[in-house]
Amino acid sequence: MQAEGEHLKGRGAQKNIANKFDKHQHEIRADFLNYCAHEGDEPQNLKTLFIDTFPKSIVNKVESPDVGMGFSLNPYQGCEHGCVYCYARNSHEYWGYDAGLDFESRILVKRNAVQLLEAYFMRKSYKAAPIVLSGNTDCYQPAEKEFQITRRLLETFYKYRHPVGIITKNALIQRDLDIIRELAKCNLIQVNMSITSLEEKTRRLLEPRTASIKKRLETVKKLSEAGVPVNVMTAPIIPGINSHEVLPLIKAAADHGARSVGYTVVRLNGAIAGIFEDWLKTAMPDRADKVLNQIAACHEGNLNDSQFGRRMRGSGEFATQIKAQVELGRKKYLKGRGIDPLDCSLFEKYRPGQLSLF
């Protein structure tokens, strides 16, 4: 049983938290913890549960101008990777779960994702535009090893020669290199690999169930050697935790074949602020106040900023320093590299019922 003040290993969030939509709230009382300790029981079930869902739609239009995508598709809701800073945690509350431990232990599996995607393609008025897998939660999280929904989606994208992007921090993507290579030959895919730190200790604390840094860099190299355009997301940059690694991260990305890099500055919106603070005080108690103060310095004195155009990059001295480091790294290590726009012209030729005049 977890002792008070002890970091809960293997999870990002350290506890369940209240769902803002619930009428009733609950808390774990000290007398209940004492009872569990006496009986040798765990006070909460941390085993991951996979819950089948059958949504009515699968492609989401992205309204935010800050995230660099027009449409997203998420085969899973919730993410077992357990990244403590993840902005997607808040979305779990809409499903009746909490943004803390529920987010990483109650995974919704969209069983009909492929059928919904094909139906989306068949709409007469539809015009091809890149769809990004993992706009919210990682399409290559551990659940994918069993359910293989992402692989079947990629096969569908290739069947219709439709452009697709991927955001992931899991080396499991290497399993699908065969289909990804074919998509790349037609300029139909771009992969965004998230690498937040080069220090394995930091990675284990921030992102407890993700692939190791070594495996992620290896994945960037293998994809790049296969002709797949790879962008490395050094995101989020967290002042006082990984902000000293900006240049080394960009160099490592370039050395392994990445064509570009992106970044964001961490912001703790919604329930994430409480989750992150609780995690920080157990995982890094010696620097908790410093980190929180520096994050606030990037967001007008707050832990979160919701203003479009500013929220993902921050403002103030720390944010300006981070931006300058990223620009320097791009000039120094990625000069002459870039990623071309994906090809949207092939789709009409491969969609059933579409006749060509030539």
TrEMBL record:
Lineage: superkingdom: Bacteria
Keyword tRNA processing assigned: no
Taxonomic lineage: Bacteria, Pseudomonadati, Bacteroidota, Flavobacteriia, Flavobacteriales
Residues in Elp3/MiaA/NifB-like radical SAM core domain copies: 69-297
SMART domains tied to this protein: Elp3
NCBIfam families cross-referenced by the UniProt entry: rSAM_PA0069 (NF033668)
Name the UniProt record assigns to this protein: Radical SAM protein
Keyword annotations: Iron, Iron-sulfur, Metal-binding
CDD domains, per the entry: Radical_SAM
Pfam families: Radical_SAM
InterPro entries from the UniProt entry: Elp3/MiaA/NifB-like_rSAM, MJ0683-like, rSAM, rSAM_sf
GO molecular function: catalytic activity; iron-sulfur cluster binding; metal ion binding
